[in-house]
Amino acid sequence: MPGLATLHHMMGHMMGWAPLVPTPVLYALAALAAAAAIAGLARRTRGALWRLAAAAALLLWLAGPELIRETGQPLPQTALLLVDQSPSMSIGQRAATARQAAELMQQAAARVPGLTVRTVTVRDGHGDGTRLLAALDQAAADIPPARLAGAVLVTDGQDHDVPATVPDHLRPADADGRRTTLPLHVLLTGRGEETDRRLRILQAPPYAIVGQNATLRVEIDDLGPHPAADGHAALTLSRGGEAPLHETVRTGIPQDITLPVTRPGPLLVGLAASALPGEVSTANNQDVVRINGVRDRLRVLLVSGTPNQGERVWRRLLKADPSVDLVHFTILRPPDKDDGTPLSDLALIAFPVRELFQQKIGQFDLIILDGFENRAILPRAYLENIANYVRDGGGLLLIGGPEFLGPGSLQDTPVGEILPAHVPVDGGLLEQRFRPALTDSGRRHPVTASLPGAGAQGHDAEWGPWYRTLKADSAHGQVLMDGPDHTPLLVLDRVERGRVALLLSDQIWLWSHGEGGGGPQSELLRRISHWLMKEPELEEEQLTATIADGRMRIVHRTAAPAGPRAVTVTAPDGTTQSVPLHISGTGLSEATLPAALPGIWTADDGTHRAFAAPAMADPQEFADLRATATLLAPLATQTGGAVRWLGDDPAHPDVPGLRLAASGTLSGPGWIGFPHRDARIVTGRSAQPLLPGWVALLVAGAALLLAWWREGRT
């Protein structure tokens, strides 16, 4: 027997039960009455049915049937109004049109009794495009399902989370578990379907070998009702500081574009497709590709003199770099020395002097002479080849020790003409304890600036000591490190198109052994080697530019004691401005400025140029810039909603009226509507017995009298 909690709707009222005895007792009495009736019927006792009727009347009275009347108050329905303000809405007057339409919708809702509108503004999707349906689900979670009337989307139609089926929040269940589909209306900011051309970079290599071609895979698509008549588009590739390239490509088909990589370092390539007549925007007609130009296997020739501790340092450093091909020879014994040791015990192969220093010298990116004492090993012609190799653009590193002062010193050969320092024979060798330190130029030069443990100024470096150095009587170029009495220790110089570095001590290996705390031996040698091989990041005069979060940062580095200067910044649209630089550190000056315009920006200080481009924060937003109904119309149709165009006049959008419809269609000419949900709150409740006690006793007594009369007849 159901209790009070079980209610049934009946003609606007509800019927309930309030038993006068416990429910188990009521069930037991019903069972006894049923058993007695069955027994009487089995014996064909006259009056058994009337006795059963009397028992049923009493049992019904004991069950306590009631008629419950509730008084209530209708609740207003809530419709969600989602206003798209994502990046794609910045095209034209879309954002302003959407805001004005939302305001007019709110005013219209105020004139509809029983309807309220809750406005939700949808902005950036955090890199995932526009997420209108996700915002709808989140907003609908705070509204009781019985009070949700539906939703209206004010958008350009570019939504990136359109589901295949109607979301659950638009299909709420009623009290009986049946689901009702609520309408989703779509108001589009435009006059109709628009046309757009977009450029897509399907594939671009992050790295490319200098001197070879990089292959880009691109596709140009024409979207909308008016594609290009001939099916072709012009593609322009702009490279920083180089002449642009022009290609004609077919639309709608992926195509490969080859691009020569002429220099190492970062390379920005701007790609721009020609405009399509009548397209809504050219913002997605262009893009920027970042390619890092790298050299193919760097070839390094290391020639060591008498075996020393530094050999192991060089081999460990150069062998650890997978991009370096190392050719290493050690001169175990000069030709003019004969100690009786068989040649087979001194070398596995003969020293290929002619092959290395005449035939293939131009194939090396760097030559390192470590403790090299000529002593008739290399003829003068080959030494001239080394000097000419440097003048033609090669790199040469010399590590000098006591052999630099002997009769076979390279100072007395054609190589001496390109060396940045000269060491006299008399007094040229200093043997004393000292700590290497950076000079003022060394604190500004990228090769030695910010070396670990360099100290803030002067000779306060925390590096371990050396015990031997050469004392130069003259030096030119850039002295980055000095030794005792401020004698030059590390000198860099440019010789025509090439570069030379001279380290006037052969004891840098002590740092690798941790002598006195050690020092940044590997990092220093790596930087020297890469500067000699013209690594862009180690150039002493640099101008770099980066763009992040809509701002451009320009940094100028110089090894000279020069003050700040101004740079000329050119925006992608061709406008220029002069921007002053401010000192930010030793040898550093910088500036920042707004840079929101897409494309390649240029910074020029009169000598150097730097290029930068903003990374697109949300590529999905600009993949398709049309105002279109193609994405959301199927979902609106499934829910019984309407699709309307608002026009492109933000002052007078074509906003439809609002209604609450009883049933049937939910839209018509000039209006959209929501169904009545009949949501209400109970304000009062009363109960009235359906079977009074005296009526039950009267019916039961009458039934018993009829049973007695029926049994008394023979």
TrEMBL record:
Top-level taxonomic group: Bacteria
Sequence intervals crossing the membrane: 20-41, 48-64, 690-709
UniProt KW keywords: Membrane, Transmembrane, Transmembrane helix
Entries under SUPFAM superfamilies matching the protein: Class I glutamine amidotransferase-like
Keyword Membrane: yes
Protein name in UniProt: VWA domain-containing protein
Species annotation: Gluconacetobacter tumulisoli
Keyword Transmembrane helix part of the UniProt annotation: yes
